[in-house]
Amino acid sequence: MWSLGLVAVELATGLPLYPGNEDYDVLKFIIETQGQPPDHVLDSGVYTEDYFIEDKDKQQRWTFKTDQQFQYETGYESLETRCIKLTSVGIVHADLKPGNIMVVNRHESPIKVKLIDFGLACPASAVIPGDFVGTVGYCAPEVMLGLPYNEASDMWSLGLVAVELATGVPLYPSENDYDYLKFIIETQGQPPDHVLDFWHHTESVSSMASSTLDKSDKNTNWGWKMTLTANYNAKIN
């Protein structure tokens, strides 16, 4: 009967009552003109979380997503889908960052994005540990330290891009490798020694890694520690 009423209005006026090419736009018109469905109705909706945000501390628990929130989520999902497709065929993009993400049509809803600049991309099986790829502020720690890496490194970069899309600022704002790695260690902890030992005992050691981490004295505490800023500056100058 609801659909019949909408058809009747369109036949009489020549215009749809709720114009919109996408479900979000139609639902937005309905809520603006008819009001939002009660919480107990939204609780049982299979797709409620696609269009509403739940806040259990509010009297009205479900809040309709703003245009910005909905576009962000759909844009991120589009980006995530493309990264998963690369992973499924064993390809590492190796330089995932906001500058390598393009919006297909900014007037289209939902937003669709595509990845560009595959100059560093390669099969995961062809990755060479020690080759520094990617961009400071987005590449995975294992890439910076010259460790073996795979498609998972793109997922790290995807997470950082997602944060920046949501907040408008990078999670780890860094001008150089040292600051970036320092941010990571301060917030997520230092990689275990047995992991750091790997690059120390291989021929392909990244110069950045050897300039950033120092081995502690054997007679005190045998393990890796972050190089002090002054020592790091002395090493690279």
From TrEMBL:
Gene Ontology terms for molecular function: ATP binding; protein serine/threonine kinase activity; protein tyrosine kinase activity
Residues annotated as transmembrane: none
InterPro entries: Kinase-like_dom_sf (IPR011009), Prot_kinase_dom (IPR000719), Ser/Thr_kinase_AS (IPR008271), Ser_Thr_dual-spec_kinase (IPR050494)
Record bears the keyword ATP-binding: yes
Domain Protein kinase: 1-237
One Pfam family per UniProt: Pkinase
SUPFAM superfamilies xrefs: Protein kinase-like (PK-like)
Keywords, in A-Z order: ATP-binding, Kinase, Nucleotide-binding, Serine/threonine-protein kinase, Transferase
One Gene Ontology CC term in the entry: cytoplasm
Superkingdom of the organism of origin: Eukaryota
The protein's name in its UniProt record: Protein kinase domain-containing protein
Organism: Maylandia zebra (zebra mbuna)
